[in-house]
Amino acid sequence: MKNIRATLATVWRIAMPYFRSEDKWAGRGLLAAVIAIELALVAIDVLVNQWQNRFYSALQAYDLDTFVREIWIFIGLASAFVALAVYQLYLNQWLQIRWRQWLTRHYLGEWLEGATHYRMQLKGDAADNPDQRITEDVKTFVEQTLSISIGLLSSIVTLFSFVIILWGLSNAAPLHISGLDFAIPGYLVWGALLYAILGTALTHWIGMPLVNLNFEQQRYEADFRFNLVRVRENSEQIALLKGESAERGRLLHRFGFVVGNWYAIMSRTKRLTAFTASYQQAAVIFPYVLVAPAYFAKKIQLGDMMQTGSAFSSVQRALSFFVTTYRSLAEWRAVVARLDGFEMSVSSAAHLPAHEPTIGVTPSTGSEAIALEQLLVKLPNGKPLVAANAFAIQHPERVLVTGPSGSGKSTLFRAIAGIWPFGTGKIAIPGKSSLMMLPQRPYFPIGPLGDAVIYPAEHGTIAPDKIKEALRAVGMPRLSEQLDEEAHWNRTLSLGEQQRLGVARALLHAPDYLFLDEATASLDEPSEALLYRLMEERLPSTTIVSIGHRSTLDAFHTRNVRLVQDGEIHLLGGAGAPARAEPSEAR
Question: What is the DSSP letter of 555?
């Protein structure tokens, strides 16, 4: 019961925001319509149950007029049932897509808010494969939540509706054993209840492991799919290294977990299906066994017997809701657990600065410099990496940051960008100034080239003529006439070409501060020099901070700052700074 309450509380927390959102009236209206139709379908089942008594009694009495009349009544009931069932499915699917659309937008907004998606990766939280959780898990959650909740409501209403009928039939057809009548009030109801309790208990005992098995299956499937995507994204490197055999082995190893867990699901499902199928088949004959003695003793008519069998089946089916939907419940609980884990991971990453000492990035007034005060950048495991104090990048300087590989240069850039929370201290950024980071491997969204180059700006915010001119300036004239061509640019262009496009992006956005993290390292030295001269010419008021290892970069910067190691910490400035790092080698 504790697990059930916890699961229901989680479902309520995930589901209710939609019905309180801007789309709440459409969602509530569709849900109310689906519930109303379900209640109408139960009412039709009650009428059909009463119809069975009259119909079979007419057959027993050879009453043709009543038989014909009941046929027409049945046609009317069946037509109403079909129409209601069709529209219930239609409205249910309409509600599903609206709910899923809202939930997907909500999760995408939370996941992509600030740098939450990046912090989740850094923290190594258990919310693996966000793509699956936002696609498959959201879809399954919406579908099964509606299916299970409507099914449960139908079972409750059916139970109360048919218990009254079955109780009356118990009095009309007393338990008849060995020629004796035993007046047990509602004995057919008690029989259905005991039958359902026994079936539910055995079903839960047999099928309980399916919850964890389904959870693991979804995780293994997502992990296998993710690694297939990685192979596709890195196909060139794999081909160059002739790593196909190694990748095949790695993929088959991961797929082995999918297969092994699936065999466990098969084995457990076989046992569960064997029991539930036997249980359902026995339920067909069980009520007739109970009332047959009274029928053969001529205490009741054929119509009463058929109505009893139908009413008993309805009550037993309502009471056995958990038996018949157990596998769906197991899958649903696994999906709920995955979405709950995703929400917790997103919330933890989003509120990381509020729960732990972190690097504070704040706007400054009255200064045009980026100032680092008492800054200590750490790794996610808490190990100190870079320290700096009373260090400033003036506007519009040209600063070259150097140091050994692994000393934390790129991590320092991430901290200045505000996406690296691990550490302490303050970074003051001039208010209303714009920052742009150019990594060694720039990102280009799949789509038209023009939109990829101006990313993250929206389509149409920068004139096509300006984009073409920037492409020609960075040495990519052949692409200037392909702005509307759609492609996966990170795969179709070489890394050097991508870095040229990255510089074109910087020219178009003209930020106040531009950070280049080895953003031209894949180019030859003359091409690199050309791009730096271009930035000097086109971006005279932009502060440029570069990470690089080539000595040729010195000519394009007015100041050189080194990261030097002091124990386990790298100090920003010069060697020998005891408690703080100062800029050194100013040029």
Answer: G
333, 352, 371: which is the final residue of a domain? 352
> At 146, is the secondary structure helix, strand, or coil?
helix
The answer as to whether 189 is a domain residue is yes
Distance (Å, whole) CA 173 – CA 574: 99
Residue with more model confidence, 263 or 202:
263
One domain for residues 348 and 364: no
The beta strands (E) that lie in 391-445 are given as 391-393, 398-402, 423-430, 435-438
Tabulate helix, strand, coil % of the chain (nearest 5).
65, 15, 25
| Chain segment 481-535, per-residue pLDDT in tens | 899 999 888 888 999 999 999 999 999 999 999 999 999 999 999 999 999 999 9
Structure tokens at 537: 């010419």
Angle at 298 between CA 297 and CA 299, to 5 degrees: 90
Q: Which of 23, 177, 33, 11 is closest to 105 using CA atoms?
A: 23
Q: For 161-183, what is the mean pLDDT?
A: 68
CB 431 within 8 A of CB 364: yes
Per-residue DSSP letter, 385 = E
pLDDT digits (tens, 9 = 90+) for 212-266: 888 788 788 888 888 888 887 777 678 877 888 888 888 999 999 999 999 999 9
Domain count along the chain: 2
Specify the range with the lowest mean pLDDT, choosing from 19-28, 204-213, 298-307, 568-577.
568-577
Domain boundary among the residues 303, 321, 352 is at: 352
Domain span at residue 197? 2-352
Q: What is the CATH number of the domain that holds 263?
A: 1.20.1560.10
Please state, for a pLDDT cut of 90, what percent of the chain lies above it. 37
Residues 288 and 433 in one domain: no
Interval 277-294 mean pLDDT: 77
- Answer yes or no: do 153 and 241 share one domain: yes
179 pLDDT tier (thresholds 50, 70, 90):
low
pTM, entire model: 0.70
Q: What CATH number is given to the structural domain containing 495?
A: 3.40.50.300
Same domain, 250 and 302: yes
Per residue, what are the HEC states of 465-508?
HHHHHHHHHCCCHHHCCCCCCEECHHHHCCHHHHHHHHHHHHHH
Asked whether residue 201 is assigned to any structural domain, the reply reads yes
Which residue would you say has higher pLDDT here, 207 or 2?
207
Element (H, E) at 559: strand 559-566
- How many whole angstroms separate alpha carbon 449 and alpha carbon 462? 13
On whether both 11 and 90 belong to a single domain, the answer is: yes
128 inside domain = yes
Q: Which of 434, 416, 433 is nearest to 425 (CA)?
A: 416
Residues 273, 406: one domain? no
Paired strand residues for 428:
362, 371
- Asked, for residue 371, whether it belongs to a domain, the answer is yes
